[in-house]
Amino acid sequence: MNGALRALVVTLVIEVPIVAALFPRQRLRMAAIALVANTVTNLTLNVGLPRMGVHGMPRILVGEAAALVLEAAAYALLSRPREVGRAIIASALGNGLSFTFGGALASLMFG
Questions:
Q1: Residue 53 CA to chain centroid, in angstroms?
Q2: Is 90 exceeded by the pLDDT of residue 1?
Q3: Measuring CA to CA, which residue among 30, 27, 62, 24 is closest to residue 44?
Q4: First and final CA of the chain: distance in angstroms?
Q5: Residue 19 phi/psi, 5° resolution?
């Protein structure tokens, strides 16, 4: 399994349950939305930006900021009823935890 795929798996393992937990009345719906949103943003960060020549700290800063905003927007626009505050919290918490602990979890999962 390559690095980008590992990063995607770890991100989904961390972020999807967080989003589902923070939207208790629509767990399955929001888990599915989180799965799609995180797949798009993670692959953009780890595959798309490097192919466009964006590397190192600029890739991390641009990619993580974009992920936070785009995922929060997806959660806010697609939750029923729309819950903008909860969407921002879910995105910030998920992205913060996956950024902080993703490397350690990847080491545990993939050696």
A1: 22
A2: no
A3: 62
A4: 12
A5: -60, -45
The mean pLDDT of 38-66, rounded to a whole number, is 95
Ramachandran bin of 53, using left for φ above 0, alpha for ψ from -120 to 50, beta for the remaining angles: left
Q: Which long-range contacts (CB under 8 A, 24 or more apart) does 76-84 make?
A: 78/29, 78/30, 78/33, 79/23, 79/26, 79/29, 79/30, 79/33, 80/26, 80/29, 83/23
The DSSP string of 52-89 is TT--HHHHHHHHHHHHHHHHHHHHHHHSSS--HHHHHH
Percent of the chain past pLDDT 90, that is, above it, reads 98
Q: Note the pLDDT of residue 50.
A: 93
pLDDT value at position 57?
Answer: 93
